[in-house]
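Help! Submission page says 'invalid entity' but I think these are all valid:
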Amino acid sequence: MKNKSFLWLMAMVLMLSLFLAACNSEQTEGETPGDGEKTSDNGGSDSDDSSDSGSDGSDDQASDEPTQGGTLTYAIDSEPEGILNMAFYGTATDAEIMGFMVDGLYTFDENLKAEPNLATWETEDNKTFTFKFEEGVKWHNGDELIVDDWIFALETLAHPDYEGPRYANVKTIEGAAAFHEGEADSISGIEKISDYEVKVTFDKARVNNLVNVWSYPMNKKRWEGVPVKDMLGHEFTRTKPIGTGPFKMGKVVPGESYEFIANEDYWKGAPNLDKIIVKVIDNKTVVGALQNGDVDMVPVHPTLGKQVEKMENVDLVTYPGLSYYYVGFKLGVFDNEQKKVVEEKEKYANLKLRQAMYHAINREEWIEAFFQGYGSKVNGPVPSAHWISADESELKDYPYDPEKAKNLLDEAGYVDTNGDGFREDPNGDEFVVKFSHYASSNPTFESRAKALTQYWNQVGLQTELQMIEASLYYDKIEKDSDDIEVFYGGWSTGADPDPSALWKSDMLWNFPRWVNEESDKLLEDAIDIEVVGTDSAKRKKLYSEWQQIVNQELPMLFITELQETQGVNKRVGGVEYDVSGSNNPNEWFIKQ
Amino acid sequence: MLKYALRRILGMIPMLLLISIVAFFLALAMPGDSFSGEIDPNNTDPEYIEEMREKLGYNDPIHEQYFRWVSNFVQGDFGKSTKYQIPVKDLILQRLPNTVMLGVMAMFFTYIFAFSMGIYAGRHPHTKMDHFIGGFNYFLLAIPSYIAGVFAIYFFSFQLGWVPFSGSVDIAVESGTLDYWLSRFYHALMPSLILGALGTATYTQFLRNDIIDNSQKDYVRTARAKGTADSKIYNSHILRNSIIPIVTFLGFDIVQIVNGALITEAIFTYPGLGQLFLTSVNAQDYPTLMTLFVMFSFLVLLGNLIADLLYGIVDPRIRVD
């Protein structure tokens, strides 16, 4: 009697654990969770494959022959916004989800050059393009894809009520501006020839007209009667999107999981998999989920790469990325009204100072320490995987050489005159490098920034670090705030190689406020059809020359380009990655 | 009683006004806005960002922005989330069921643990078991939820494979069926246990102390002298009195149910309001952020009110009138 309530407590606990155990057996039948000693051949990794579809007799061999059926779990580690419409989405996460279900008119090859997909095109002058659509391509709802669907997408983007960020991808079409202002009923530059052929005229000839124009059609029939201003919130955008891609959207649990079902009518051939489940997980659980086989594929942050590499049931796939990190110098002040740099800042104007700061950094060591080696050093503003990237031999390397750095500083007049161990500027005044880095909850940010300041301290440049709250950081840089002098940052380049938006002297996002006429001229020439025509070799040559200038003038010190790393369970086959991303998921399969 | 309730409700109005001011200016005081850091030449350009800022009224004078927001808010228009691009109301309604489920389950666990442990400890004070319960409770109280969450995922999801580590439901089950609700329950189990366990300590110790207090009172001695069974004294006489302080917590529990658990939900990628609040802070999604802030604050007020009213009902001695 006395212990009744205690007994009751124990009983509750027992019941609870029984319940848990019951759930467990129902969910992960036969799974032997890894406790560090798991061997790779016990098949534990494919135990949660709940597929019941018939296998085709190739059971015993884990060969590379694609097999049919199976469900693949694909995880993403940041929350999508749920805008599942190519015309409206804003984040890469949404795009990643849509990648399973949409097709574009063109795709990019491993050198990021456009290649035909849904359509082929012809042009003589790079001003007028004739697009020929693949015939017989079906939308997921059974409608056939015709050029009207693409025209409809272009008109949506140019519509006055359109709220997404993609107007820039249509405004180069002749008449788009008038349509955008509401002065015309259609875009005059678009001329439908037949259901499968359309002629598009741009406002002028440019080399990048093609890769700039919007390439994702929208099913016109399905959207009929939905005003543009209601599209963003519509269920066709949120929970019932369709495309022409290898997988159809099944069920959606917003912000949490997405079910994709094989599109058996896919025009490039039915997918091998039955289903792909896309799951949103917290980045703290990435390693555990991969280890246990709870997810088959997930992007892995470089800092976790080594842990994933060690796993016996998972391959770490690395492929070249398109982003680079840099240390920039504020060389001036920009006026956004006049679109030009109105004032020069002298503090870092001396090229030898910048060179010395470059030689002072041990980039290899730094990359190894903070990106676990999943990166390599770059000497210019174009990641080496891009087709316009200059050959390594054309760019000057700035190896780690503290002695050289010291000599350069001596030559430039930065010497220690008052014996405090740090150099003064050529006038004999105190010289302190003010270095800024953005702060977030990521604990490695401060230490990697600190490491850079130590490199500079070691060659006698006194350096102060300030960590600035991330949301404020780029605002300050954009506004040329006085407390920003030397700043850390990252850029990623897109498929269109034109770097003008980040580098021309009249651009807001040219953060160093670097003005160089030669550079401006080269960037203009490289997209000027009169100069380069349709010859991409010529274009590349101009970009190489431009990279050499940047590489010599050093408005930024280029630190590293990153590799993208993806964890892929060994039971998954047919997955390939190159710089443009993964291959078409209809080729993926689950090994038997 | 009615007069008291009315007075309390009227008193909430100036509070709400103050809250709205605080919510608005706190959001505004955050550096940058929802477009900060959206600098990606592949995806957008400066003109678009400027255009959107103008359109959303970020460039208007502050008092205009404030009054526009308040007047819309009062009319039930909470604005449109800048991150998710849907009305905040829809967004909250989407997440609310998850959070309520998590909160109710957490409360359920809290009550079970707290009552069984509190009653036991109160009845057997200063025994080994009492000390163990006390120690155990303070241990739970001391663990930050993000540590508890990560450890729970590591042990129960990854090592033992008992529970899922993310999400609120298995997408493969048909919505509305029994399986669906079981799956919902199963997904909420771990986060709600963590949440419930963390709240247990306060309840247990309150209950224990109150039972000990009460057991030395005259009415208990009288009951004992009359020969009433010990279990009856404890379970009906004392417990009834000892529940009173617990009732005051109920008001706050309502807050907890809806407020969710910022950290727990984030760690378990459980899409509830807590997680939404956290992402809206990170994304500087003002409309969502401010709505949730006001909503949570309002619930605190409401919870307080309910607690005060319940107090009067449970214990006639302290009825205010």
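Support: the input was valid. A stray whitespace character was the problem, and the output above is from the cleaned input. Residues 178-215 of chain B form the longest helix (38 residues).
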